[in-house]
Amino acid sequence: MTMLVIPLRNLRMKWARSLLLLLVFTLGVASIVALNLVSGVVGESLEKKLVAYGANIIVMPRTEKLTVSYGGFSMGDMLLGVSDLDEAGTMQRIASIHHGSRVSAIAPKLVSMTRVDGTAVGVIGVRWEREMAIKGYWSVDGEFPGREDGVLAGSRAAESLGLAPGDTLTLGSRSAVVTGVLRPTGGDDDSVLFANMGFTQEAFGRPGRADYVEVAALCAGCPIEEIVLQIAEALPGAEVQALQSVVRQRMYSVDFVQRLILSVSLIILLIACAMVGATMLSSVNERIREIGLLRSLGFSRPGVFAIFSFEAVVLGAAAGCLGYVAGHALSLRVIGALDITEGAILEFSAAGLALTCLLIVAVSVLSAFFPAWKASSVEPSEALISL
């Protein structure tokens, strides 16, 4: 009989207790695996949802500011080297960065000034499908422009210009039709007119150009600073800035979910470890005579320690394997029931299974360390006295 046969025989003889302990340990592992898999998908989905509330990186042409004064008269700040961006080239370079998969939306803007019935107003050229990806909070009276010459008026701009859906106006060299009025947002969007990018470029004689680009990047998994640095390297003539307040707000929401899941997982793991340790300790007390006989037959202290440790290894490996499979199946059901994770894909990971098994085996052995040490400390004479 070898040291490896003794633990297996004991697990088989105490099958009811072993099965119950395995079930409890497996449920704990399954809960932890499911929580972590779901939290990863929820965090990713939550961040994608937050993208609809604005960009977190802005790309502008590099400029130099000069404060001019002469003879005690200040002429204010002047911008030198003001230019614009090549729209197609800028978007292509941003999309081609190493962390391009973390870029959720790229929304170029072309800003022009004009007068409507003698009143000055700003016209913002946008790509509607890209703009809506970062302005999910917009709502309009009327409808969003579905035609090239359609215009969406901000609420304050529509009020000051007397515009309503169906009105026509002239922007630059072309006439346009107001299809909708943006409901108040409390921001700069209320004071301008929005038009199709191609229409604006043609109306104001700036084909293929953009004044700045807003980028919505997914911050989880890679620091926003790395994305900013990569965009800056791809666009050496542009100034790239992260909107830190927006980044912090998003990361706080995502991190809060992940920290909550981690805390719950640690509590479950500690409870499972306590149960393993208590059960193993009880097993040592029940098998004190068996341990005494083994020691009398020549089993060394390390040998007895290895017997109980191997029981913990078998238990941990079985619980880790079954718990990961059950946790993955449970996470699929939970993700399917959550609206926020619509379209999320969760693939089975063999590496995750192996890593979970190794981790649970280590935790199980650690939990059984004290019972195994106590068993190895039993003196043969003390055990045989009780026979």
Automatic annotation (TrEMBL):
Membrane spanning stretches: 260-282, 303-325, 345-370
Annotated family: Belongs to the ABC-4 integral membrane protein family.
Subcellular location(s) per record: Cell membrane
Topology of the protein relative to the lipid bilayer: Multi-pass membrane protein
Domain ABC3 transporter permease C-terminal: 263-380
Organism of this sequence: Pseudodesulfovibrio alkaliphilus
Protein name: FtsX-like permease family protein
Gene Ontology CC terms: plasma membrane
